[in-house]
Amino acid sequence: MIRIILVILAIAILLAVSPLLIGEVGYVLISFNHTTLEGSIVAFCAAFLVIALGLYVTYKLIRYVWSLYSNTRHRFFARSEERKQAAIEQGIWSLINSDSEQLELALENNSVADNWHDVRYALLAKAALQKSEINKAITLLEKISAENQLKAAKLWLATGDCSTVTGDLKALAEAKKATALELKMYAEVLVQQQKWTALEQFMPRLLSKQALTDTQWSSLFTAYFMAQPHSQLIDKYQQLSKSLKVKAHMAYLSVMAKVGRLNEIELTLLKMLKKSEQHNDLAKVLNVSAPGDALKLQASLQDTLKKEPDNQDLLLSLACLANAHGEYELAARVFDKALNPENSKDYLAQAQLSYSKSAQPQKALDLYL
Predict the structure, then answer these.
(1) pLDDT along the chain (369 residues), means of 10
(2) HemY N-terminal domain: which residues (predicted)?
C-alpha cells in the first residue's frame, strides 16, 4: 500500500514540476455535463496530494479502530473459551476423584464448548447416579444427542431403564464386526432385562469373540444361575458347551452352595480338595454356602488339615462348612486360628455367624471394629 502511494505521489510531483521545467504554467480543464473544473497543474496536484493524504490517514485510522475491536473481541472470546475448558477439566478431575458434589458444582452452572455438551450431560448423569437420583440421571441422559447415546449405554444400564439403547445395541452386537465392548454391553442389557433364553443363544458369540474377562463371565453366570429355578440349576449347567462350562464352573458351584445344595456338588468339591491350586476356590464356594449337607467333605478337610495344619484356605473352608452343618463352636475355633487382617473382611459374615451362634457376641462385635 505504501509503495502504491509513493508511486502516485512521484507521478503527481512529476506532472506538477514538468511544466515549470519547460517554462509553462500548465493548465487543466475538466468538464462533466454542466460542471466545469479548471486550474493550474500545480493546484490540481496539491489538491490530489491533500486528498491522497486524507485517504491514507483515514485508512490508517479505520485499521487502528478495527484492530482495537478485533483484539477486544478476541480477548473476550478467549476468556470465555478458557472458562468453558476449565469447567470441563474440573468436572473430569472431580469424576476421577469420585466427588459428585464438586462435579455438579463445576458443570451445572457453567457452559462448555459445543463439542463437549454430550460429555457434560453424561458426567452430570453419572454424578446423579452416584447420589441415587435416578430420575434426574434419566433426564440428563435424554439430552445427549442421538449419535452419542450408545456411548452412555453403561449409564443407561445403571438407571435400570435401558430401553433407549437396547435396539441400537442389539443391532451392533449382531453385526459381523461387532466390537468386544458392544457385545459386552448387549450381554449386560440381556441380564438386566432377564432375557435368559436370548442370553443362552448369545453366549457362544461372547465366547468366540473373547468379549468378557473371567471376572465378567463369573458375574454374568452368577446372575444367570441365580435367576433359574433351583430344580433346573443342574440341567442348565449341563446344557452348556464344554468351553462355556469352564467359564461357568465357579459361578455354578457358588450358586448351588448358596441355595443349600451342597450334597449335589460334594463330589466336585472333594476333587477340588485334592488339588492344592483349587483350595482358594473351594474356600470361596463354601464362603457363600447356606445350611447343607457335605459330611464326607468335612471329614476329608479335617484329615487333610492334620497334614497341613496351617493351610489358610482349608481352615477357612472347614470353618464355613462347619457353619453350614450347624457346628458353630467348631467353626468359631477354626476362625480363631484362620482369620487375619487379609481375609477377615471377605469372611466377615461367616465368622460373625459362628461367634454369635456359639455365645461369643464380643468376638462378633470386635469384627466390626
Answers:
(1) 65 62 59 68 67 78 74 60 78 79 78 80 85 86 82 81 80 86 89 91 93 93 95 95 95 96 95 95 96 94 94 95 94 92 91 90 74
(2) 26-130
